[in-house]
Amino acid sequence: MIKQILHKSFSAFLALLVVFSTVSFTVEKHYCGDVLIDASVFSEVEKCGMEAIEKLQKKSCCKDELDFVKGQDELKFSSFEDLNFEQQQFTLAFAKTYLNGFESLPKQIIPHKDYSPPNLVADIQVLDQVFLI
């Protein structure tokens, strides 16, 4: 039981690791002076409201910063032909013995499967008072 739980949790962890290592996203930040006003990953950042004043002035105190987190682009896809001869031999032998280990047993024929015993009207041994000792 504990082995199955560990196996499933480890498999889920590895699947999530592959998914999150290949995902790319952008972190958007808005600074007003040196103060961070808002940071966002999936939506647009909220501005500080200084845009109207910035239009009147030439100098801008606000700045937007984009941090792009790039995921892994190249995944290694290897084929059976990339293995050397000994590795191919071992892989084929392992697969053959593993798959043959799960062959089902021959179906057992039960000749009296549909036979129903006769109905007992009375227990003869009790009626005749004959018992095995």
Automatic annotation (TrEMBL):
Give a single Pfam family match: DUF8199
- Per the UniProt entry, the signal peptide is 1-26
Matches recorded under InterPro entries = DUF8199, HYC_CC_PP
Q: Where are the transmembrane segments?
A: none
Keyword annotations: Signal
The reply on keyword Signal is: yes
- Alphabetized NCBIfam families for the sequence: HYC_CC_PP
Task: List the protein's name.
Answer: Secreted protein
